[in-house]
Amino acid sequence: MNEVLQNLVLLQDLDAMIADAQDSEILDQTEKMGFEIKNLEKLKEARQEIAEKIPPDIFNHYCKILKAYGRAIAPVKDSLCLGCFISIPTSLSSKSIGNEVLRNCENCGRFLYWV
Ligand SMILES: [Zn+2]
Fold first, then answer.
1. Ligand 1 centroid vs 98 CA: distance in angstroms?
2. For residue 64, what pLDDT is reported?
3. Residue 115, pLDDT above cutoff 90
4. Where on the phi/psi map is residue 111: left (φ > 0), alpha (ψ -120 to 50), or beta?
5. How far is the CA of 67 from the centre of ligand 1 (A)?
6. Is the pLDDT of residue 100 over 90?
């Protein structure tokens, strides 16, 4: 898999975890289960580390899409962007080619990865 794409997938996971760790309802549930979330700083550190590995223009685009849609990366299945359900040109839609090059959906702008 393209290294930047891999880092973007990691970044998105961390962003989701950071959002959970800041969500008071989830915090309550977690505490009731006997766990404590004290790892927010650790998560933010890890996010920072990954963010530094991503070229700034790509990172900025990621942040923009994340703000607009909540998730910046969308899986592609059966030649469809699962973010907006627009079909991806067949020349691009193969897993082996798809994940080697960083691409954005022409319709919604999300980064694409093939499942
Ligand atoms: Zn799309």
1. 14
2. 96
3. no
4. beta
5. 15
6. no
pTM for this model (two decimals): 0.82
Ligand 1 centroid distance, CA of 13 (Å): 19
Which tokens is 38 given?
């004290």
CA 72–ligand 1 middle distance (angstroms): 10
CATH number of 3-114: 1.10.287.1490
Q: Is the dihedral of CA 48, 67, 87, 105 positive or negative?
A: negative
In the reported structure, the alpha carbon of residue 83 is separated from the centroid of ligand 1 by a whole-number distance in angstroms of: 5
Based on the number of CB atoms within 10 Å of its own CB, is 2 exposed (0-12), middle (13-18) or buried (19 or more)?
Answer: middle
Q: Give me the residue spans of the domains in the chain.
A: 3-114
- State the burial class of residue 112 (Cβ atoms within 10 Å of its Cβ: 0-12, 13-18, 19+): buried
C-alpha of residue 113 to centroid of ligand 1, in Å: 11
